[in-house]
Amino acid sequence: TAGYLLHTTITHKLVFNIHEDDVYWCTADIGWVTGHSYIVYGPLANGATSLMFEGVPTYPDAGRFWKICDKFGVTVFYTAPTAIRALMRYGEEWPAKYKLDTMRILGSVGEPINPEAWMWYHKHIGHGKCPIVDTWWQTETGGFMITPLPGAHTLKPGCAQRPFLGVDAVVLDDNGNECGVNEGGKLCIRKPWPGMMRTMWGDHERFVDTYFTMYDDIYFAGDGCRVDADGDFWLMGRIDDVVNVSGHRIGTAEVESALVSHPKVAEAAVTPVPHEIKGQGLYAYVTLVNGVEESDELKKELIVHVRKEIGPIAAPEAVQFAPSLPKTRSGKIMRRILRKIAAKDTDN
């Protein structure tokens, strides 16, 4: 446990530039690892004031988060992309009712943040002044693994940026070779780090089989990723969500970002669906901005929008409107359920 606590303390201190006079708020459920690492251990070990909250961001209204930030003078705010996208649906008038003038750093956690959500977060919550640290890590890693450092990195909307100090991250192809620039592959960690998980209770063999058999003695994270020409890491979603369409590997996160960039879309989830000719196709679930009406014309408009943003190969086979998407308590979209619905596999 000493290594885990060291990892959470150091990452929290450097990534959020924490000082003892900070009022830090992580909106996660305290029962999940984000709550353990970055509501309790990291903030308190660094002497910061850690704000705890139980509830939802839209009750009693969509200004709930921002009212709390103003009331307690929150300086560092850490939340999930799903929460940001949910609040985007209600428009910019809600954060505009509050000062939010104590904020200095914003954070994102849980899944890749869409560039459109990043820009909204930066503009309406950070007033164009607060750096956003989009952190990639897992329950198994104990703490941040890939993240920008505020003031040190040139930020890119939707990009996880660089491995944290001492983290040896690499993107490998199916043969174990390092991928080229912008070539999608599997995200792995080559060397140990202080907070790493070391076994599964009562089933060490399963632990080894899950994380260390894809490549010999290398930790496989289960995520798809690419590294751009600047050496920055872009998460493409879980490997299960990287779709092979007519021989082209497409990250569903990229298609979701294209859909969310449309002004009428608040949130989107894309899953693979079997296709007789292509092998796999793309099935899109879309939640519209409040007040926008569903129509077949809008479905066609969204498909054309994706074609323009990415290319014809990424165009969804179908678009299904959904008033909301199923999520876990930690705010992650339950893609396993959506995949089954798209494939009409609803028996289990």
Automatic annotation (TrEMBL):
InterPro entries linked: AMP-bd_C, AMP-bd_C_sf, AMP-dep_synth/lig_dom, ANL_N_sf
Gene Ontology cellular-component terms listed: cytosol
One record GO biological process: acetyl-CoA biosynthetic process
Enzyme class, first EC level, given as a word: ligase
EC number: 6.2.1.1
Domain AMP-dependent synthetase/ligase: 3-200
Domain AMP-binding enzyme C-terminal: 254-332
Pfam families: AMP-binding (PF00501), AMP-binding_C (PF13193)
Example GO molecular function: ATP binding
Gene3D superfamilies in the cross-refs: 3.30.300.30, N-terminal domain of ligase-like
Keywords, ordered alphabetically: ATP-binding, Ligase, Nucleotide-binding
Protein name: acetate--CoA ligase
Species assigned in the record: marine sediment metagenome
